[in-house]
Amino acid sequence: MRISVIVCCYNGAKYVEEQLSSIVNQTRMPDEIVINDDGSSDNTREILSKWKETTKVPVVLNFNTERLGYVKNFENALLRTTGDIIVFSDQDDFWYSNKLEIIEHEYKNDSSLDLIFTDADIVNSNLESKGYSLFESVGLNKRKISNINCGNAYQEFLKRNVVTGATMSIRKRVIELVTPFSAEWVHDAWISLIVSMVSKVKVLDQNLIKYRQHDFNQIGTTNNLSEKVKKALSTGDLSEKGAKQMVDLIEFINKKPGLNLSPFFQSKLEQKYLHFLKRTRLPKSLVKRIVPVFIELITLKYTFYSNGYKSALKDIIIIK
Questions:
Q1: In a 3-state reduction of DSSP, which class is residue 211?
Q2: Closest by CA position to 74, among listed 182, 2, 157, 199
Q3: Is 317 helix (H, G, I), strand (E, B) or coil?
């Protein structure tokens, strides 16, 4: 079994070398590291070029001639891999030395398993613990973890994305099923939802990386309640984006050869799209929107396809 590691970079000079060192100092060494730089304007390219010459691990180093954005950059890197297992990595985190050993063991023990994601320690820019884990931050508790590992990953993923790409890995055979990525989606949410409807997903309740939080994170995390509320309110209405995402996903699945979803899953995707569509059409009047929100709530649409009562409350509070 060969393992490829993807590292995508953009202006990552401050942390990328430390991350790469943690990747090559594994108890189970990677067979290949594919690095894609998305047009960095700092000295990331120089660091990567010099580092490549110092490591014994085969490195595929690519410098994009034009910026792709981080989602398409990951897709570009993914298509360059040759391993049986592909492990995703951010440029600014730090891996514990047994990460690849544990991941490989899981795939070897279950040939039907196509995607794994794990927990992580949330740390500051100096890799010092912030006192909580990634799963705590995204609300992934023991009950939800058990539900995912019992074969119901799609139920959790339809509500919202709880898979962080920096902790994710997939089998090579998945690549053909999930590419090209939609521009409307984050790559980890796109991959994990599709895989959950056609194959087996496993979540490991283990912290295998240090997930670094700093001022330049593409997507950050917090465990502070007031910060979560502020973030939720500041994002405004996401239902329109959610509807566009579902249109993209449904069209992709309908046109993708070999991706034959059951009528059950097709219905689930359509119901999620209709739920977001209704949310985009809520009246501007606070009084008039209470009834349609309440109907979506009691029919469990918010429970199945959004973040429950929290999403319902947000739809009432935020006037579109």
A1: strand
A2: 182
A3: helix
Among all chains, which residue has been given the structure tokens 């990386």?
209
Mean pLDDT per 10-residue run, the chain (320 residues)? 96 95 97 96 96 95 93 96 97 96 98 97 94 94 96 95 96 96 95 96 97 69 52 54 94 91 94 95 90 95 92 79
Phi, psi of 207 (to 5 degrees): -90, 105
Give the whole-angstrom CA distance, residue 222 versus residue 158: 22
Q: Which amino acid is at 26?
A: Q
CA dist list (Å): 130 to 135, 165, 168, 221: 13, 20, 22, 11
| Pair 268, 158: CB distance under 8 Å | yes
For residues 80-100, one letter each, b for 16 or more C-beta atoms within 10 angstroms of the residue's C-beta and e for the rest, the string is ebebebbbbbbbbbbbbeebb
The model's pTM: 0.89
**Of 3, 47, 50, 40, residue with least CA distance to 23:** 3
